[in-house]
């Protein structure tokens, strides 16, 4: 340490060199201003503060001892790197804290159903297990077995764990449409106009309605600047309402009602997120599948816990899906097997 101090103190610094070093210190002043503002979130006031302080430090050090001005300039440069490194750590900590606060606020406002959280966890575990299996098979020189395993898992999942939407459309294809005055107990399909009883308020647009479905997507950008949107939240909530046709009306307990509706009533983009809300409103014409039971002598339709089916869709959208569903299934099946053949050729 003494050797370093002796080295700097023994240096001769002329006035022209001093002026040059003071001008050079303006460069460190620029970096100091950017670091404090960008990494620490501290707005320097006045903006020229470091552009005055840094040259003054060099000048005052020169008055103490000419060689000390060189030491002062060296320390100013060192401080740029030190402040930059600590600033990156500090800004990362602040960003993490801010992200956690935003996530907590987000989850408080848009509550994710527990069932969806569990499903997401199982999905991630399954993907990780599949990737691990792929690496292990590759190390054994038997990666081609994935061509058998992956399709088998997809088929087994479709047979034994069909999605609620798949169940809904399968039942819709076989269930007869019941009239309100002749609803049998058990799983039923009804169509009619909606009557509001207990309105609910949508979480983002604060719209009163019979029920709502909300979808939130988040924007991300890859290294090439391409923007993609991914869903980060979806949920629905429905109050108690009635559905009527020309023969009468029945009450519906909307808890757990799934929405198979393409219509979007309101949407907005805010920051890096966009929000979509769909509403069930008074006089909407709806197709509904659920469990009919008797409550105090009146028919009540609610979720079938055993079948796991309780869904709503607009009849005209269902008609379009039924018309094009066979063509879509054939196309996807053909595409699936062509993809398997291509992958097999590439691996082999």
From TrEMBL:
Transmembrane annotation, as ranges: 15-36, 48-64, 70-94, 118-137, 143-163, 327-347
Keyword Transmembrane: yes
Entry keyword set: Membrane, Transmembrane, Transmembrane helix
Coiled-coil regions, chain positions: none
Name this protein carries in UniProt: RING-type E3 ubiquitin transferase
Species, as recorded: Pedobacter westerhofensis
């Amino acid at each position: 340490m003494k050797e370093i101090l002796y080295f700097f103190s023994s240096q001769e610094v002329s006035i022209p060199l001093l002026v040059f070093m003071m001008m050079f210190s303006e460069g460190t002043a620029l970096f100091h201003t950017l670091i404090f503002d960008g990494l620490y979130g501290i707005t320097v006031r006045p903006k020229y503060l470091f552009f005055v302080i840094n040259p003054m430090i060099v000048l005052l050090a020169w008055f103490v001892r000419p060689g000390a001005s060189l030491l002062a300039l060296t320390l100013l440069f060192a401080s740029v790197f030190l402040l930059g490194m600590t600033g990156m750590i500090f800004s990362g900590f602040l960003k993490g804290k801010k992200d956690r606060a935003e996530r907590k606020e987000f989850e408080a406002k848009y509550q994710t159903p527990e069932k969806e959280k569990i499903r997401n966890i199982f999905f991630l575990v399954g993907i990780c297990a599949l990737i691990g299996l792929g690496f292990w098979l590759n190390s054994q020189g038997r990666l081609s077995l994935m061509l058998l395993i992956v399709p088998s898992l997809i088929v087994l999942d479709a047979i034994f764990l069909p999605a609620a939407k798949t169940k809904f459309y399968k039942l819709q294809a076989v269930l007869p449409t019941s009239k309100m005055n002749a609803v049998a107990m058990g799983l039923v399909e009804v169509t009619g106009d909606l009557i509001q009883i207990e309105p609910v308020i949508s979480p983002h647009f604060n719209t009163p309605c019979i029920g709502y479905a909300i979808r939130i997507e988040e924007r991300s950008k890859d290294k090439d600047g391409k923007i993609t949107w991914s869903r980060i939240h979806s949920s629905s909530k429905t109050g108690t309402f009635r559905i009527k046709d020309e023969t009468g009306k029945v009450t519906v307990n909307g808890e757990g009602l799934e929405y198979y509706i393409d219509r979007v009533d309101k949407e907005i983009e805010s920051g890096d997120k966009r929000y979509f809300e769909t509403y069930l409103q008074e006089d909407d014409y709806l197709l509904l599948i659920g469990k009919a039971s008797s409550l105090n002598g009146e028919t009540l339709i609610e979720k079938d816990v055993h079948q796991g089916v309780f869904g709503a869709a607009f009849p005209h959208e269902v008609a379009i899906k039924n018309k094009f569903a066979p063509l879509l299934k054939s196309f996807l099946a053909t595409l699936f097997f062509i993809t398997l053949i291509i992958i097999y050729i590439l691996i082999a």
